[in-house]
Amino acid sequence: MSLSVRGWLALSALCLLGGLAAKAEEAPAQPASPEATVSRLLEYFRGSAVGRYRGGNLGELLAPGSEQTQLRQWYSYLAAYALVAAGRAPETQITGDTAKVVVPAQPLTVMLKQIEGKWLMDLPATLAAMPEATQNTMKAQQCMGALWRLASAVRQYADKHEGALPSAETWRDDLAEALGGAEAMRSVRCPLASPGVSGFAMNEALSGKSLKSIDRPEATVLFFESDREGPNPCGGEEALAAPRHEGGNYYVMANLQVRYNQAPPSFTYVQKAPPPVNAGGPPPQ
After folding, report:
1. Dihedral (C-alpha) 91, 94, 100, 105: value to the nearest 10 degrees?
2. Share of the chain above pLDDT 90, in %
3. Where are the domains of the chain?
4. Segments in the chain forming alpha helices (H)
5. In sequence order, which residues have a C-beta less than 8 Å from that of residue 130 and are 6 or more positions away?
6. pTM above 0.85, yes or no
């Protein structure tokens, strides 16, 4: 069976919750209690993971004001919850040459609001109630994911422009098409960036350069975390944001790979040396 990334996240998290059979051939009645709403939410995520949920739309269970970015955070939360569920000490029972280990899961907190008699999930409040360590992990994943989207957009742009990078003065405008438009570009940001900025900037030393011309692209910064303002933030190491993620930052390197570093990598453009004139031929006499 082929599962989407979203499906894997939901399934991996809800496997720990056990006993949540999603028998939803017909849309059930609107849940009348907080517990019933949470049960429906978990049924939704479990069912959507395997493509068999028929219990109605998720929107029916969410309070007004929920955003798609917050919904993606919630999926990430479930995945992170699965990874840290073994946070409490397991109980071990040893009998002869056999043993039984029970790993208790950490509590899963869901915040709800009662609106017109219906209990609905308050998604922003639920995300705010997550453990701090989980929130930090999620934010780092979101930042890294946003940079991977930029790297993919650069690859598409370069393919259409004979291997050239966009101008540092217009890079967001140039890459917006590959990302799906201006609105999609606005969603590409680090969650720890200052309000009103994307949180990323382009290394101006690589403005318009050919990807193939860059010496050691794996060690040369292309995009980096920055609080620089403007429609197309750019600059050099002086524009680098203070460490946002456990003492370091994420970067897109000139080989279009995303990398985490505590010490800043090189921002200097070094042109690859041309091959010798007689490359592949007989040695000069």
Report:
1. 10
2. 43
3. 5-86+107-130, 133-261
4. 5-14, 34-50, 68-84, 123-128, 132-160, 171-179, 182-186
5. 77, 109, 138
6. no
